[in-house]
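Researcher: Here's the sequence for the chain we discussed earlier.
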Amino acid sequence: QKGQPATPSMDIEIANVTSVGNRRQGLSIGRSRRVWVHDSEFSGTGGTPPQAGIDVEPDKGDIVQDVRIERCVIRGNRGPGIQVWKDTHDVSISDCTIEDNRNAGILAVDATDVTIRDNRIRDNTQVGIALRKGTRQVSISRNVFERNAPGRPRASLNGRDPRWARHLEVGPDAGAVQIAPDNRLD
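Model: Thanks. This is the structure I predict for it:
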């Protein structure tokens, strides 16, 4: 009814989907709780920004909480492979191939409690993972990073291995980022 808050979607499973050649997003996850996306492909999105393979972005005035993205292929999108946007909490991205996206492989903006593990993140035009504008409580472990940001020079990132410069960008207002030593870098 008009004037009443919308009810979020809950307990959603998206599996065995092939979403290729879309104009705006391969998949948009709006106001929702407990979403499981697995064994699917989100590729070739392009036409209207943000042009992400998967866009986790709540509707204004609400949140997205408890999203698992597992065993997916996200490739060849004009925007980020996976975008995790403002007011999103508790997102896990695991065992995915995230490659050949024109933006970052994974872009998080003002998101909280993001786990990125066991992925293959490669050949993305910008960095493999970009954490910006207030993103916090991020855990990055057991990923394989290859050939991201090919034009970016290798430089030290806060005393870390200089190879991280091509694979991870942490904005000055992002915080509580844990990078495990078991990530593999090209």
